[in-house]
Write a structure and sequence with these properties.
Elements (H helix, E strand, L loop, with lengths): L9 H4 L5 H12 L12 H28 L1 H16 L13 H30 L5 H5 L1 H33 L12 H18 L2 H10 L5 H6 L1 H15 L5 H24 L3
Helix pairs in contact: 3-5, 4-7, 4-8, 5-7, 5-8, 7-8, 9-12, 11-12
Length: about 280
Amino acid sequence: MGTEVDPPRTEDILAPGAPLASAVGTADASSPREPGPGGEMTLVEHLEELRWRIIKSAVAVAIGFALCFWFNQPIIGWLLSPALKVAGISSGSLIFTTPAEYFMAAVKVAFFGGIYMALPIILYQVIAFVSPGLTETERKWAVPMTVGAALLFTLGGAFSYWGLLPICLRFLVGFAPTTIVHPMLTVGSVLTFTTLFLFATGVVFQLPLILLGLALLGVVNSRMLTRFRKFSILIAFAAGAILTPSPDVFSTTLLALALIVLYETSVVLIRLAGR
């Protein structure tokens, strides 16, 4: 009769170095891993999420671009209005010097308009992507900062359109002696100047959110900014003199006062955040 073989015990199978354990370990190493404990993601999963968030942001910009391009005539008319009033000319007096100039100007305006319309969605995608690495306190500020960024950008554009832009255009156009030259503004140059001016001011108005973000990261705090107040006023007037092409005191002071108000708003927000 053959020798009876005892069945393998469970502890022998699961013991370190057992053939079955080695085989399972090899299979786990070659198979796709699930998210780890606490919802941790692999590098590939992070890149996949980033890809989809970029796609969503691009789709939002594309939709905004299509809408702005469809309504390009009223938008362009609105953007040209300050320059036409300053130059004292009618809308039909503007010229374009190349066949594609107006078309490219419309594309440029639609592109910037699409970014503006998609700004809340873009900011939401950015915050949603980095939110797993934020603390609970930092996550509470995510939505208010997203809404605040869009509102501050709009406020900066409005401040520029009805405040700074007419002053700067009045100086730049009026600087040329009319006895020698006559302004013949092209639609492309005016739209480029106006659009970039509005966007630059909108970016500058993000100062409170930038400082608040730095405070949440522990880089600055309200006491530090309070001690720095005197220097901030000096920097505000220096920035006002540099950023405004018009050398008159009024436009410089106007932008400097806006920067000072933004700085003080930053201090208040940081104190409310307990930093």
